[in-house]
Amino acid sequence: FVIFARKSVIQLDLANTKKALIVPAFETLRYRLSFPKSKAELLSMLDMGTLFTFRYHVWTKGHAPTNFAKWRTATTPYRVEWEADFEPYVVVRKDCPEYDRRFVGFGWNKVAHIMELDAQEYEFTVLPNAYMIHMPHAPSFDITKFRSNKQYRICLKTLKEEFQQDMSRHYGFAALKYLTAENNS
């Protein structure tokens, strides 16, 4: 992955353009896995049910815009558009917007970051031969709190609303799509 990412960074001129290179994410439910050495091997593991697209069973919206069906046969990078709740793993320039510090722990850190990148007109480009695999692990303290504590969820909702208002103030009319998307999701 590292070698391919470096080549992509150079070929796609990441240093001089506003691009967010999307690394398609997959997951396994197995604690031990022989990491696929190629895209073909990964696709075989997907077909056999050893791997799945990331969070397909609990949060498909987070990675759906990656367009995994297209990725299966892609040989060149392709562009995708922002959608509500999109939270891909990305490679970006050092001078990109930082993660919003309001979102620590569990919830909305990547979503807010991708929203900010979109508002600043970053182009989302999916890498056709790169991938990452999420391995199973015990739930974090923060996700446990999110799931079990209503107050945590209320606080997160308040922070999301505050963030969206800040986006509207900063980006004006262009940020209305974020409010509309949130209300429809």
TrEMBL record:
Signal peptide: none annotated. Keywords: Glycoprotein, Membrane, Signal-anchor, Transferase, Transmembrane, Transmembrane helix. It comes from the Eukaryota. It comes from Oxylabes madagascariensis (white-throated Oxylabes). It is a single-pass type II membrane protein. InterPro entries: Xyl/GlcA_transferase (IPR051292). It is found in: Membrane. One of its GO terms (molecular function) is xylosyltransferase activity. One of its GO terms (biological process) is protein O-linked glycosylation via mannose. GO terms for cellular component: Golgi apparatus; membrane. This is LARG1 glucuronyltransferase.
